[in-house]
Amino acid sequence: MKLKKAIACVGAAVLLVAVTACGDKGGPAEIDDPKPTSGAAGETAKPKVNMTIMGEFASSNLSETDKLLVQSIEEATNTAIKFDIPPSTGYTERLQLSLTTGDLADVVWFPSPDDASFLKAVKDGVIIPIDEYLNEADNIQNYSYDISWDALRVNGDDKVYGIPRTTVIRSDGYWFRKDWLDKLNIQIPDNNEITFDQMLDIMTKFSKEDPDGNGKHDTYGYGWAAQPDKSIRPVFQNELGLYGWQESDGGEYKYMNPQYDLNSDKYTKALELTAKLFKEGVIDPDGPTLDGGKVLEQFQSGKTGVIDGFAGHYETFLNAGKQINPEFELAYVFVKNEQGEMKGLGQGTGLWGFWAVTSSASDPQRVVDVFDYMLSDEGWDSIYTGIEGHDYKVENNQRVYSATPLETFVRKNMVRRANDFMFFINPAMSEELKQKLVPNIEKAVKRIVMSKDRNYTPAIAKTPPYLDFNKKFSEVTTKIIIGDAQSSEYKEVLQDWNTKFGQTYLKEMNDYIDQIENKK
Ligand SMILES: [Ca+2]
After folding, report:
1. Other residues' Cβ atoms within 10 Å of the Cβ of residue 77
2. 351 has which bridge partners?
């Protein structure tokens, strides 16, 4: 359907005409497209442009659906697109080599705006600013997070150095053992939202009241893990109102993170609560030594009754759990904060890497146009659902999807639309399952609160003495949580930090946030 449309529109070859004649802004798909009138091509058509896109994908070769997608993009934008996909284990090296030798694709993917080779390439003029090309890129503007643009202004000149590869930011809820809730006669409201007190009560019952009925005291309320760097942090920060850098309630600094605030007890209270739950065995005592994979295993095997996680994993988690215990059932639950609000910290800057236009690009505007097309309603429909005839057929005005397409290396990994939670839902999913999952994913996307630091790191925090001192925070946090230190010891370390580094750190962070916030 869409491919036919794209071809039909390119037949007319006038993009302006294409928008009016073939625009399909969310309306129902029509089967009988009027045939394009020929002869309109010519005057305003843009010349064909060749471009190479260098990116990191799971396969160096395009799959069938990838090829069909690229073809539809080429036809819609009058381009010839080549992909340069190094083996993913060697991507960084290949990218650096290209930057050094100047043998560059028109547009290249970088994993992060902090990437040292990216920052150098910007300084050297190898990566160019794209502000002027974004003027008419309404789709890129509409479907990127504001914070992503801030993260891409890396050169102190207020210019943007990349097209976001957006990731849909979520703040997930919790998986509960539904069969354990039933066994203990605990009801969850229809909207799946409970208070933090209810959450604490349920976790306590899961650890004390033998929810698996084996007569042994062998379960824990909540499964948690150490951070990837092995440090541990207090649990339930969302519920306790810890959302990173926000406007402060007063005091010396306009913006504050409770973790660094000598005048606030929010963070020490979170430490105290984690220590209490740890001591009482309400949270898994093995948590500090576990990683994410192990936490999932403990939950599926019935050692813990609650874990946090993505609502879209329902079928996978349920099937894995049922293999171990046929009684295994799942409920997905959100926990409101102490003020009764549905809020959760969104991580990152909305970027899952980004696309940087290089000084070798023969037509930078057209590179931006290609990405803008991918995010248009028509382009996005092909990216999300695939191409008619291959990924789905149209029968009785309805799309019938083929078996789950797995080889969407390029198709599903070029661009995303900010806040578009339907991305997480396979279009082939049954209506019944959609109705079960979509409301939960929607809540996880809509409840996000972003930390105002936008992943910015003050210069002082990159110095060796600072990095060395930082270990003291990890040490004291671990000690408090496992019961080897009083929570007041955190404030002692914080006081020391404040004297040595904090004033510089807090001022620099405040200046950064202030500058970005005032631009709005
Ligand atoms: Ca038991």
Report:
1. 25
2. 166
- Cα(209) to ligand 1 centroid in Å equals 8
- C-alpha span between 238 and 345 (Å, rounded): 6
State the amino acid at position 371 in one-letter form.
F
Q: 21 CA to middle of ligand 1, Å? A: 65
In the structure encoding, which two tokens stand for residue 501, read together?
A: 């580094």
pLDDT per residue as tens digits for the range 2-18: 444 443 433 333 333 33
The Å distance, Cα 129 to ligand 1 centre, comes to 60
- Contact yes or no for 345/244 (Cβ under 8 A): yes
Q: In angstroms, how far apart are the furthest CA atoms of the chain?
A: 82
Residue 234's Cα: distance from chain center in Å?
22
Residues paired with residue 345 on neighbouring β-strands, in sequence order: 449
| 322-337: pLDDT as tens digits | 999 999 999 999 999 9
Please state, in angstroms and as integers, the Cα–Cα distance from residue 42 to each residue in 12, 206, 466, following that order. Answer: 9, 71, 63
- Structural domain boundaries, residue 93: 2-168+349-429
- Whole-number Å distance, alpha carbon 490 to ligand 1 midpoint, is 36
- Same-domain pairing of 323 and 180: yes
Domain end, chosen from 290, 319, 346, is at 346
What is the pTM for the complete model shown? Answer: 0.83
DSSP string, 386-444: --BTTTEEEETTEEEEPS-----TTTTTS---TT-GGGGS-TTS-HHHHHHHHHHHHHH
Q: How confident is the model at residue 520 (pLDDT cuts 50, 70, 90)?
A: low
How many angstroms does the Cα of residue 211 sit away from the middle of ligand 1? 6
